[in-house]
Amino acid sequence: MKKLLVFLLPLALLVAACGSGSGEYKLTVTLDDEAADGQTFFLINYATGDTIDSASIANKKALFKGKLEEPIVAQIKLGDAGQDLVLEPGDITFTWETGEPKGTPLNDKLTVIYKEANDIASEYGEVSRKFANKEISEADAQRMGREIGDRLSARLFKAFEDNKDNPIGGYMLSQWLPAQDITLAKLDSILGTVPAAVKEMKPIKKIRDALLALDNTGEGKKYVDFTVVGDDGKERKLSDYVGKGDLLVVDFWASWCGPCRVEIEKSLKPLYAKYNGKGLKIIGVAVWDKPADTRAAVEELALPWDVIIGDKELSEPTDLYGITGIPHIMIIDNNGTIVSRDLRGDDLIAKVDELMK
Predict the structure, then answer these.
(1) 268 in Cβ contact with 251 (< 8 Å)
(2) 73 SS3 class
(3) What sections of 133-245 are H helices per DSSP?
(4) What are phi and psi of 329, to 5 degrees?
(5) Which helix (H) or strand (E) holds 251?
(6) Which residues on adjacent β-strands are paired with residue 94?
(7) How many whole angstroms separate alpha carbon 122 and alpha carbon 264?
(8) Does residue 253 sit in helix, strand or coil?
(9) CA distance 179 to 172
């Protein structure tokens, strides 16, 4: 079966193959496509992002052999595509097209979880079909979608709770977390129930770091400055715009982001037309985007305000503010205090109207 999510995380670090008591594994990966012969599979350790091993494909098959002391979750990569399994002692088979790891206890368990999660997720398609055929209303479609999402979330969390003593537990926690509206305190409470190795996983640490940044830059806190170097070599800072006598609206956006474009047209441009030169400034911060694509979008959208664009795809500004999704719009007062975060549409317009009174 195809995996529902891009699974990210292992539970333990791969240790030296010569360690005492280590167990041997043999992983056979098969494909249906003869054209893949001659290409290379890579086996990745997600605790570090390091490559564990590589194997060439011959006769629609690749073979990995090695030793490890504890099972881990690993990813098999072919080009940009990756699929996950538990690397543990034993004879493991993996079918690339179906994404099914088999042959060892934890992989058999993981395959069952994949199937149950995918069965739930498949219901989204039926809801979409009914809505497209006008069999249900938009409100009903949204309600049913939320219910499916809740059941899927519950299944992933149960898989985490049922497997805290093996790598699947931390792995499932990593899949559950990104879709949750969770506080730093709640995450720390959950992490208090898991082995230390889970807390050290890079993807889980990344989520916690984002929540910590969000907590440190919430409403009522002072803004955090950042510096961006453009293609011209010149530095531009957020502080270039803060404290200049105006209320500042900061739009973190990207050219490829459809909701960002909607927000620009429906909220930001009307606010600019109403308040520009009357105590309000708007700036854009281009993130997660190629500079050339940003410039093209600025011209296409005819943006009348400044946009901070780097000489590469930017992630530092969003890391500083714990931003995990865009558009993200922040309002900073003339004293450098953050007075609002992540409002959109009518809520954003109403907040600016209130602050401009």
Answers:
(1) yes
(2) strand
(3) 138-162, 167-176, 184-191, 196-199, 202-216
(4) -115, 130
(5) strand 247-253
(6) 29, 101
(7) 33
(8) strand
(9) 12
Do the beta carbons of residue 301 and residue 325 sit within 8 Å? no
Query: d(Cα 243, Cα 239) in Å, to the nearest integer?
Result: 8
Angle at 143 between CA 120 and CA 118, to 5 degrees: 10
How many whole angstroms separate alpha carbon 312 and alpha carbon 323?
18
User: How far, in Å, CA of 143 to CA of 166, rounded?
Assistant: 35
pLDDT tens-digit profile of 71-87?
A: 999 999 999 999 999 99
**The pair of three-digit structure tokens given for residue 260, joined into one six-digit string:** 């960002």
To the nearest 10 degrees (0 to 180), the angle between helices 167-176 and 105-121 is: 20
Strand, helix or coil for residue 252? strand
Specify the residue for token string 């570090």.
48
Higher pLDDT residue, 4 or 63?
63
| Locus of tokens 């955090």 | 224
Distance CA 98, CA 103 (A): 15
Q: Look at residue 21 and tell me whether its pLDDT is greater than 50.
A: no
- Distance CA(159)–CA(346), nearest Å, equals 39
State the maximum Cα–Cα separation within the chain, in Å, rounded to a whole number: 73
Residue with the bigger pLDDT between 356 and 5: it is 356
Q: Write out pLDDT tens, residues 31-42.
A: 998 999 999 999
Closest CA to 30 of 80, 96, 87, 74: 96
Structure-token pair, residue 7? 């699974």
> In this predicted model, what pLDDT tens digit does every residue of 272-305 receive, in sequence order?
999 999 999 999 999 999 999 999 999 999 999 9
What's the pTM value of the predicted model, to 2 decimals?
A: 0.78
CB 98 within 8 A of CB 2: yes
